[in-house]
Amino acid sequence: MGSVKDYFSSLGTGIASLVKGLTVTGKEFVTPKITEKYPENRETQHVAQRFRACLELIYDKDGRHKCIACGTCERNCPNGTITVETKMVETPDGKKKKKLDRYIYDLGSCTFCQLCVTSCPTNALDFSNDFEQAVFTRSKLVKQLNYLPEVPDPEPTPEELAAAEAAKKARIEAAMKAAAEKKAAAAAAAQSDETPAADKPAEGEAKPE
Ligand code: SF4
Ligand code: SF4
Questions:
Q1: Contact 17/10 with Cβ under 8 angstroms?
Q2: What is the pLDDT of residue 63?
Q3: 148 near 59, Cβ under 8 Å?
Q4: Residue range 26-56, pLDDT digits in tens
Q5: I need a labelling partner for 193 at 20 to 30 A (CA). Which of 50, 112, 177, 203 fits?
Q6: What is the C-alpha to C-alpha distance for residues 123 and 121, in angstroms, rounded to an integer?
């Protein structure tokens, strides 16, 4: 008798479990589908803002980036993904200044560790979340990040030019003065070496008037 009771008890439990499962299935059956239809949904697809897809130089609205070509990112990159090529330019005050020539980034070897971004002293770098980077040739993964034409620095005002010219003149005069002093000191030392020992006053002896 007991076994018949157990039979119907377990049958009831099974049916309850079946109904519970079918309820979940039924709910999912009528729930709107969330399948991403890529690439048809390219325009509306949401990609997390912080997703690291590709390194880029940040340009402002005037087409300028903030890279000062210091090379910190290149040195910090653990696998040589970055190459910073520089050039020397002359500023209006006659000084030499290092500037960025080409910023080369190999997406194919990047591990997206973000060391380059966090170590950049001018916050010139960031990762875009543009994930569509598939290509058929590896060489196409090597990108020049400073892709816009270089915006020339603003023309210096007449006052700035005059100040730069004065600074340049002062530097030249200071250098000439230092060179003359060095030459005079060298000449005095040479003359001192040529003076015969007999003519030199003995230590502690008063110099002849
Ligand atoms: S991106 Fe930043 S760290 Fe790299 S060279 Fe330019 S300024 Fe230096
Ligand atoms: S994210 Fe890491 S691996 Fe990629 S370029 Fe920057 S430092 Fe190099």
A1: no
A2: 92
A3: yes
A4: 998 898 877 888 889 888 888 999 999 999 9
A5: 177
A6: 6
Q: Is 107 in the pocket of ligand 2 (CB under 6 A)?
A: no
User: How far apart are the C-alpha atoms of 71 and 23, rounded to whole Å?
Assistant: 62
Q: Token pair for residue 9?
A: 């008890």
Q: What is the pLDDT of residues 146-198, one digit of tens each?
A: 999 888 877 778 888 888 888 888 889 999 999 999 999 999 888 887 766 55
Residue from 57, 59, 84 to probe ligand 1 pocket by mutation (most atoms less than 8 Å from CB)? 84
What values do phi and psi take at 154, rounded to 5? Answer: -60, 145
Closest CA to 145 of 83, 79, 87, 89: 83
Cβ distance 168 to 94 under 8 Å? yes
Residues 106-143 have pLDDT tens digits of: 999 999 999 999 999 999 999 999 999 999 999 999 99
151 phi-psi bin (left φ>0, alpha ψ -120 to 50, beta other) = beta
Domain range annotation of the chain = 54-144, 155-187
State the architecture of 54-144 in CATH terms: 2-Layer Sandwich (3.30)
Return the DSSP state at 83. Answer: E
The pLDDT of residue 87 is: 95
CA of 110, nearest ligand number: 2
Which of ligand 2's atoms lies nearest the C-alpha of 115?
A: 7
